[in-house]
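Standup notes, protein team

Yesterday: finished cleaning the Shinella yambaruensis set.
Today: Branched-chain amino acid ABC transporter permease structure.
Blockers: none.

Input for Branched-chain amino acid ABC transporter permease:
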Amino acid sequence: MDLIFTILLDGLIYASWLFIVALGLTLVFGVLKILNFAHGGLYALGAYGAAIAVPFFAGLGMPEWFSLLAMFIAAAAVAILIAPLIERGLLRYFYGRDEVLILLITYAVFLILEDVTKMIFGVNPYYVFEPRNLLGNVEMGSLFYVGYDLALIGLAIVCGLGVWFGLNRTRIGKITLAVIKEPEVSQAMGVNIARIYLLAFGVGVFLAALGGAFTSPLISVQPGNSVSVIVVSFAVVIIGGLGSIPGAAIGALIVGIARAFAVYELPEAEIFIIYLVMVAVLIFRPEGLFTPIKARKI
């Protein structure tokens, strides 16, 4: 029983930050119909931003708990500075174009962001240990877990509920849903489509940066983090279904538990078990678990 509990809890912890990143990816696709390969680079910027912000505010004499707020500030700064630059400066010229072209454009942005982070932050790793020490250890049965790791599960739940509430229970959210379903009709009725696109992309960037910022205490922040994250995030949204928030949650859970199971029972399969699960889902449901099947136009 201890092993099963450990696998489930470790899977939840891994799935929590992965869901936050995948949530931003699936939101951008749902609204803008763009599969944003640059999402990994934005995740990395959030991680680097947190690695700089936490010691900066600590040097100003701020209390230790302020390091958590510093990570939020870093993620928000990435969204405010980078989202308009990418969306207004580049992506808006390619809306409605071929999906392969847009994927190549976002891949080019990803490569640019990767080189920019190396130019600004160098190639040496950064370590952010202060936030992970704040919440101490929590006893769970016969095991002890870092409180910060468990808090990530709560953060993921808050992000998921926040996006769902924003889309379904607010005026701007309902307008966004209308734009998703009928952009031409929405524009004809006076909706500022450009503003909705920028807002949705900004939220997606914020979620990517937030995932990076709050993952930074768990890893060494260094070049290459973005590559692994974007690949696994794509696996999550493909399993759950592109554009589906519940799909992103279920996909992250499946990936997290599959990885945790491999770590404890099949260490040699840890690298590829995520992609094995993805292939298995695609064989039986190519559109993903939560994407409704659409009638094909002839």
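Follow-up from PR in the comments: The beta strands are 137-140, 143-146.
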